[in-house]
Amino acid sequence: MTVRVGVLGATGAVGQRFIQLLDGHPEFKLAAVTASESSAGRTYRDAAKWRIDAPIPEAAAELTVRSTDPESVPDDVDLLFSSLPSGVAAEVEPAFAEAGYVLSSNSSNERMADDVPLVIPEINPGHLDLLEVQRDERCWDGAVLKNPNCSTITMVPTLAALAPSGLERVHVSTLQAVSGAGYSGVSSMEILDNVLPHIGGEEDKMETESRKLLGSFDGATLSHHDVSVSASCNRVPTIDGHIENVWAETDEAVSPTDVEDAFRGVESLDLPSSPEPLIHVFEDPERPQPRLDRHVGDGMAIAAGGVQETDSGVQYNCLAHNTIRGAAGAAVLNGELLASEGWL
Q1: Is-catalytic flag, 150?
Q2: Which residue range is the domain that position 225 belongs to?
Q3: What is the CATH number of the domain that holds 189?
Q4: Is residue 139 annotated as part of the catalytic site, yes or no?
Q5: Which listed residue (127, 233, 242, 280) is catalytic?
Q6: Does one domain contain both 255 and 221?
Q7: Number of independent structural domains in the chain
Q8: 150, 233, 280, 321: which is the annotated catalytic residue?
Q9: CB neighbour class for 291 (10 Å; exposed up to 12, middle 13-18, buried from 19)
Q10: 145 and 24 in a common domain
């Protein structure tokens, strides 16, 4: 079965990554792209200032850009991917869901809403059933599913591996690539020869989203995990790939070997975009590195290494490609989960 899909906000940085990842997808066929009113009516080739380091897909290039409202998108589109700015998404996404569309969204609005599932398919696929609660409470036929923040999604698979040992406290310091701020988000004068030691709102996202992702759903209510997460987020002059230094404390004593084995034991899913393995473990203490390792698993895997014992637990480093696994790729994988579980 071919699933007809559309991309909301298709001309932006993450929207372009959606277009790239959907090209040649075994299940999804791109049928619609939307953008602002200034782009509507133009071909995608003309409207998008293509920034991806690969040619623009021909199938997308000749599509006519539509305005971002439910009346402009064909009724036979089965699934929408959203890369809209959160302020716009907060108004537009509910309108699409009310009109009956199912959305897999990378936008940050409502990630922490009680009736909106926040999902990493390999980690908490059961949270998808929260969509039943959402439909009942909001009285709409569509649905909105979210993937987490790019820095959160880098760390949480490793925390899920440690959770059986009794995860108590986590401290994380991130070194985040400039692409995470969008093409015009950080000027060269700010970031060259520099590190920006604060990213507005990022720490809170890591601290709250992690607990929701690791929580439990009983069919009616989602309970957040009680782990304490403290984050410090920094912007560094790399283009792609967020690397994070994580300190984790667990109830049970764990050795570096235990941690590496736990990482390797996190299973992939039988979905086109789920990598094998999900967590690639490096024994070389100088890895992972953004330039060398951000494309592990075609950019969908988590790279980890440098595991060491500390006085209170373990320390390690993890890395993910922030615009693939951390954004568009995560939403595409969530879309694959929606399709496989019969939500479309």
Answers
A1: yes
A2: 150-322
A3: 3.30.360.10
A4: no
A5: 242
A6: yes
A7: 2
A8: 150
A9: exposed
A10: yes
